[in-house]
Every structure is written in C-alpha cells, then in structure tokens.
Design brief:
Elements lengths: L2 E9 L5 E8 L8 H16 L4 E6 L4 H9 L3 E12 L2 E11 L7
C-alpha cells in the first residue's frame, strides 16, 4: 500500500455531501497515483452514493495536493481561517469543492 483516500462525514438528506482526505508515501509522489485514485473515488461517491458535493480542505502551502484537486475539477470556495490545529499550530486551509454536475436527484 502506497497511500490512502477517505471520504468521511457523509451526510445524507438535503445536504448529500462528504469530506475528502488522502495521503501518499513520499516516494510515490508525482506518479499520478493520487489523481487516479481520487478520480475513481469521486466516481463512486457521485454515481453509487449519489452525493451532490465533495469538500477538501487543504493547507495553502500544500501545492501538490492543490494541483491534484484542481486537475479533478475542484474549485476554491475560500479560506477557512485557523481550520485545523496541526503540530500545535492553528493552520488556515483552502476550502476546495467539487459538485456533481450530473446530479439528477430531484
């Protein structure tokens, strides 16, 4: 195993949304693995789980991660100030979102 992806906090009802998180072994970066894995995960969440929205919160300095979600069509909804406490310090995150454009749920 070289990495993981997780779709968490799945909310049904009128929201139909979840959070996306992922990590990859540092020796496996820049090989396209994460883009491919997240792309397949998105298909599953949108088609099988019929979600409307996937959200990823990424630290501004994590340029590689921002590139992954940008390639997959996520857009920036703004900055979440002091979003998570990482290594004892509150860190801002960029709130990236992907909407299910094929959403036919009425």
């Amino acid at each position: 195993m070289v990495g993981t992806i997780a779709f968490t906090n799945i909310v049904r009802g009128v929201f139909l949304s979840c959070f996306l998180g992922y990590k990859l072994d540092r020796f496996e970066i820049n090989k396209g693995y994460m883009t491919e894995a997240v792309s397949r995960g998105i298909e599953i969440m949108f088609q099988d789980y019929r979600l409307h929205r996937i959200e990823a919160n990424i630290m501004p300095k994590n340029v590689r991660s921002l590139k992954v979600v940008a390639k997959l069509g996520f857009y920036n909804e703004g900055i979440a100030r002091n979003y998570l406490k990482i290594n004892g310090k509150w860190e801002d995150h960029i709130h990236m979102v992907l909407l299910n454009e094929k959403d036919e749920i009425k």
